[in-house]
Amino acid sequence: MKRLFLLATLLCGSAAYSAPVAPSFTTGTVTSRTETTTTVTEAIRQVDFQTGSSYISSGINITVPGRPGVDTAYTITNQGEAFQFSESFLGPGISRETTIDRTTIIESVTDSTSVFSQ
């Protein structure tokens, strides 16, 4: 008989009820900070080449006999007066070489705040 009563009680059972669950907070904040450092190192090399040659001459109170050139004999036009003479010759090859080494440091800071409430 005990078994029958136990079986009847289990089969009939009682109604189950649930109670609402409320969170235990009402507001909150989350803060975040991100710091980043980036280092950029650059090495720039530039080489300029010249395939031909160039000759430049200039002056005041100078006589140019014939065609100007590296081996030309220039003379002073009016002896005893002021004169100026300049010449430059650039042959084939490297005409200019530029070298640049630089380092750039980039720093970034991001602060963020999130506020939530219920």
Describe this protein's structure.
The protein is built from one helix and six strands, in the order αββββββ. It has one helix at residues 2-12; strands at 27-50, 54-60, 62-63, 75-76, 84-90, 93-117. The protein starts with a helix and ends with a strand. By secondary structure, it is mostly beta strands. Helix content is 9%, strand content 57%. The protein is rod-shaped. It has a domain at 57-101. A two-stranded antiparallel ribbon has the order 1-6. A two-stranded antiparallel ribbon has the order 2-5.
Give the helix/strand layout.
Layout: H1 2-12, E1 27-50, E2 54-60, E3 62-63, E4 75-76, E5 84-90, E6 93-117
Antiparallel strand pairs: 1-6, 2-5, 3-4
Structural class comes to mainly beta
**Unreliable residue stretches:** none
| Major sheet: arrangement of strands | 1-6
Total DSSP E strands? 6
| Largest sheet properties | 2 strands, antiparallel
* Shape annotation: rod-shaped
Order of helices and strands: HEEEEEE
Number of helical segments? 1
Terminal CA distance reads: 55 Å
* Beta-strand residue percentage: over 45%
Mean pLDDT: 85
How much is the radius of gyration in Å? Answer: 47 Å
Give the helix proportion (percent range): under 10%
